[in-house]
Every structure is written in C-alpha cells, then in structure tokens.
Amino acid sequence: MQGSPAWDMPETRRSYAVYRLGALRWLGGGLGCAALAVGLSAYAVLVLKRPGLGVFIVAAAILAIIGFGAGVGGLLRAQRFRRALQRAPWQQTELRVAGAHLRLVFAAADVGADVGADVGTAQEEARSVDVRLMTTSRWRVRTVVGYRDSEVLVCPANDGSFVLTAQGTKNLYGLLPLRRPAGRYRP
Length: 187
Hints:
By secondary structure, this protein is an alpha+beta fold. 48% of the residues lie in helices and 19% in strands. Strand 5 and strand 6 form a beta hairpin. Helix 1 packs antiparallel against helix 2. The two termini are 25 Å apart.
C-alpha cells in the first residue's frame, strides 16, 4: 500500500464520491426546507391572510439551518479528505475500540528479536495513536466499531487527523487525534 497516493486507487475515488454525495444531499435538503419555509410564509400571509402558521414556518426554517449546516460542513470535510488522499498513501493499521475512543496501531517498521511483554507493550504504545471519530451519527459509529480488532486503512493528513476506510465500506470516516490521554478506558 506504500508508494502512490491513496487517490490513485479507483475504490478511493468511489468512496470519496459517496461521501461527497451524502454532503450534497444534506445541502439540498437544507435548501429545500428553506424554500418550503419561504413558500409557507408567503402562502400564509398572501393567500390565507393568516400569519398564524408560524409553527410550520419556524420548523421548516430550523430544518433548513440544520440541513444547510450539515451539508456545508460535509463538503468542507470532503475537500479536506481529498487533499489528504491526494498527498499520502493508505497505511494498514489495526483498529482497537474502547468506548468513544479508538486506537490505531500501526505495523512495526522492523520486527525485533524475542522481547518481553512489557517491552512489546511499550513498542505498541510508541507506534499507536489514540483518536476519535469526527462524527457522532450512530450508523457511522456502528460501522467503524464493527471493524474492532481488524485491519483498516488510514491516510494521514497534515494536521494530525486521519481519513479511515476499510475494504468494502465504500465510505470515508474522519478521525481526530485525542489531545489528552484516553484515561481509564484505553483502547
């Protein structure tokens, strides 16, 4: 997997397209709700001569703000993912899960001679990174947690974050490094 950037793989470009399409759907939903709010308010005031339909108008406006915000945020993350994928290759890592925290354990550069358990644990600590998902959506968290203790692919970004995927997911997931130790529930 080392060598060429992750973007050169067709599956990576398909996964990126799926992620970006999801962001565009959110943006479209937000714009649709905004149009609904404007249409309802015009209908309530001009046709019905009743400005009392405010509850529906406010609900549509709130949904518009949420959808528009999620769509714009998704498109910004997609651009960030694309820059990382065009710059760096995929790296195979093992994914460990403990509660809300994840640990990426990278493969050892060179396998040493027979070492004790304490030294092995220290070496694993040195080649691992504790991270958390950028998203809190349940289906995305469940998908990533489903890859517990298995091999996944990550692509590092310049800011220390990672783009994660696994064979067959056809989607991308953003990971942010933990700024403080994971605490009691270490992966």
